[in-house]
Amino acid sequence: MVSVKQEKASYHHGDLRTTLVDAASEMLKQSGIDGLSLRKLADKVGVSRTAPYHHFKDKNELLCAIAEQGFMRWQDDAQPIFQQTNMPAKDKYRQFIQGYIAYAADNPELYDLMFGRTIWKSNTATKSLREIAYPSFQRQVEMTLQWQQQGLMPRGEDTLRLAQVTWGTMHGIARLLIDGIYADRSHIDEMCECALNLFVLSAGNDEPS
């Protein structure tokens, strides 16, 4: 157990909050949402049981912080895909789909928290979570418009609806894998390729973008 003096030093440098979120993310992965509490988190990190409350007023705020970290990690994974300059647009989209599904399959509890009902259905998302989650979909809309302009996706479809449907398809595949319904990890590549073929046109697939 660390001393009060050490805890205050962590508060001062902002390290304790990061440590708490990292530890909570690991607890979420191991035990799910029901196995996570601020008291258990304090015990795991080795601080007083009141220490986490200096950073999170309740469990919901902690869960939102974990979800924020999940969105940031996903963005860090996805961004390099579209920064490649010598890859055809279709291959980038293939990598994007595969990366999304793999991220969900590798982090099922985190994915549930990021996109599930625990936070969003009860409308308890913190301001900072909304500020990172909503732009993630807006980015999908912007990329969909770009793919339409490139001839990769149908230009005649409404961009917002097309983005919703393509994301909805990826989300559906992710949920099938996480829930173990009609699909398992051995099916990922084939399902991703099928999704790609459903949404991508033959035109514009061979030019880098």
Indicate the topology.
Blueprint (H helix, E strand, L loop, with lengths): L3 H10 L1 H17 L6 H8 L13 H24 L6 H18 L1 H8 L1 H4 L6 H23 L9 H21 L8 H12 L10
Helix pairs in contact: 2-3, 2-4, 4-5, 4-6, 4-8, 5-6, 5-9, 5-10, 8-9, 9-10
Task: Profile the largest sheet.
Answer: none
> CATH homologous superfamily name of the largest domain?
Tetracycline Repressor, domain 2
Under CATH at level 1, the class of the largest domain stands as Mainly Alpha
Number of helices: 10
* Radius of gyration over C-alpha positions, nearest whole angstrom: 20 Å
Please tell me what the overall shape is. elongated
* Percent helix: 55-70%
CATH topology of the largest domain: Tetracycline Repressor, domain 2
- How many domains comprise the coordinates? 2
Run of helices and strands: HHHHHHHHHH
Strand content: under 5%
Name given to the CATH architecture of the largest domain: Orthogonal Bundle
Q: What is the typical, i.e. mean, pLDDT?
A: 88
Number of strand segments: 0
Question: Structural class, please?
Answer: mainly alpha
